[in-house]
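Lay summary

Proteins are chains of building blocks that fold into shapes. Our project writes down both the chain and a compact code for its shape. Here are two examples, one after the other.
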Amino acid sequence: SMKNYFDKIKEKLRNKIKLENIEIIDNSHKHIKHKSFSPEKYHLELKIKSIYLNSLSRINAQKIVMKALEEDLKTTIHALEIKIEQ
């Protein structure tokens, strides 16, 4: 299920990154009209609260998140928006 999948993503991020809180928002429905839309690929927004990531530059913080989800970005995640909350 989607919920289980999102839990897996959260777990992957928690295993690799010190973070206080994470929320996943599924924005896939907004992209149904895109040519590249495919129902088994997600457009996700991550809202992450992390003192650690906040201590890095925005680019480095995003790179670390992308690296943690590298496999998923090749397979199930079509687009990822990363918001690191202050």
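And here is the second example, written the same way.
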Amino acid sequence: WQQNPTSGFVTKLNATGKIAYSTYLGPSSWGLSARRLRVRDGIAYLAGTVSRAEFLGTNGAFQRGVAGGPDFFALTIAADGSGPLMVTAFGGSGQESLSDMTLDVAGNIELAGVSNSADLPLTGDALPYQPPADGSYRAVLVRLDSAGSRLVSSTWVGTRDVRAVAAVPDGGIVIAGVSALPSDLINTAPHYSIDLGRPAQAYFVKFAASSNLPLWTTSLISTENFQAGISADGLGNIYWSGSPSTASGGALGFDSSAGISELSADGSRLLFSSSLPGVSDSVAAVAGPGGLVYVAGYTSSTTFPVTPGVLQPQRDPAPTGTFQTPLNLNDGVVGVLDLSSFNSGNFFVVRPQTGLALTWRIGEPAPAA
């Protein structure tokens, strides 16, 4: 599509690891800042932000030019990398910042981020929230059809922050963030509160397929961040990475390492939580079939646990004899966790705080005992 250097690129590898195509992302005059990529049927879907007036969407796009700046953008690239199939912007006269993007079951493009545009395009079923009067940002959720020509749904969420979005098998979507939910949103659908004994507050909201109808909301009293996104398995359970506030029965370990947690499909229960000993906070988790979870991150640990017969059983030693000797260098790690045996009968231990004892949870959140 583009051979001259720009602010982004996309490379596709075939099944043997060879380059199928590699292209810069759009004309340099567009100034695209790509943040998320998804692939379906060989088509690459990208989303991010754009602020250049030279940006031009394809014919039939929902929004061909930048309304304010920066705005969201979404585009698709042909399977052979030869050019864009669709390019569109989305935004108002203020500023938008994309946090995450995914594709739902129907093929719609889900954009989650924040905005301060008073004239943000909304659909008729938008939740009854107003744009920020003080110019600060608020969370928004936008769905465009796969052709980028029609606004399926768009709404203010009512929170200050949104970090991640995931599609679930029933056609709905789940968003997650690290701010408090507004009380009126809590009252619109079943609400659950999971207290993990940490001072910060995170949230999940599930929306119905192709609409702004909330199906359930969950407040998580925890210091999660969702920077690496969230993911759903075939049952609709939600997985995320972070520094767990709890450890479940059978967990791999319980320390300050990064880890994996799992929320039930109805938002009511924490199903699993475990640290990954020696793995940094920057870890990603993607749900797979049959209770498998694929994880990747990095470690500086010399005792990181590995399974027999792996490609690299220990991390490479740090270089010696140079000024870099004191550096604690990291190696990448990748693994697969089998969580198929975990269910609502597991117990959870909440990390103790000063002056507090351990709190046990049997199956679902319950009063401390």
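What can we say about the second shape? The first helix runs from residue 183 to 186.
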